[in-house]
Amino acid sequence: MKFEIKSRWSMKTIFECELDVKFDNSPEKIRLGEAIKNAVLRGANLSGAVLRDAVLRGAVLRGANLIGANLIGANLSGAVLRGAVLRGAVLSGAVLRGADLRDADLIGANLRGADLIGANLIDADLSGAVLRGANLIGANLIGANLIGADLSDADLRDADLRGADLRGADLSGANLIGANLSGANLIGADLRENLEGVPFIKDIHQTVYNACTVPPDALDMVDWHKCETTHCRAGWVVTLAGEGGKALKFAMGTPAAAAIIYLKSDPKLEKMPDFYCSNEEALADMKRLADAERDAA
């Protein structure tokens, strides 16, 4: 049977194909999914296509042109979308659980309320994207571009945001429990709700550096808390923050708690420290920040 994919803007047919007879009695969303896979296989341009509710579980859509496509409610769990162009696409409510979105272009995409649990978004470009209320539990966002993205009320528990660019992002109400923010750029990010009640460490860089160097064995980057007098960098931050730091650690985990305390204590911090590096690298970075803080006083 012949199946057509139409444009959301003109409603004209932009792709058509013959589907196997085995799909004759399948639901529309199943047939649509098969047509999409056929189109991508043929290198068709699906920009602006109406693909709402399509079933594309595990589909290989690598490098597909889906600019501005309507994928509301689509099931893309486990799909391979590496390098796909989804700029301006509408994916609100879509299921992208475990999907491979490495290097994908999602600039300005609408992913409001999308299920991105465990999705691989390494180096994806999500600048200006709407991820309000999205589920990003355990998602891999290493090196992702999230400049100006709307992540308000998003669930980022245990997400890996190492080296991510979150400048100007809206993180109000976002759940960052267990999130790894090492090396992330959070300049201008909206963390107002996240920072409410967070303890403040005066002269944080000098205070942490001094605690980590006296005595000489006070720093151990292998363990969060080795003993009462030896901690890793993040461990020292939550320890120096007193009871508030302990409470935050209990609620968010040591690395996320330390990151939030750093932001509260130094809102101008350009990049979040690496909480997983060696002792030597950590000490060098702490000294650099401490010296700069002292010189600026």
Could you tell me the mean pLDDT? 95
Stated plainly, the CATH topology of the largest domain is called Pectate Lyase C-like
- What structural class is derived from the secondary structure elements? mainly alpha
Neighbour order of strands in the largest sheet: 1-2
Number of strands: 4
Distance between the termini: 75 Å
Strand content: 5-15%
Number of helices: 7
In terms of quaternary structure, the protein is: single chain
Q: Main β-sheet, in a few words?
A: 2 strands, antiparallel
Query: Which CATH class of the largest domain?
Result: Mainly Beta
**SSE string:** EEHHHEEHHHH
Give start-end ranges of low-pLDDT stretches. Answer: none
User: Which percent range fits the helix content?
Assistant: 25-40%
Using the 3D structure, state the CATH architecture of the largest domain: 3 Solenoid
Keywords for this structure?
single chain, 297 residues, mainly alpha, Pectate Lyase C-like, 7 helices, 4 strands, 5% strand
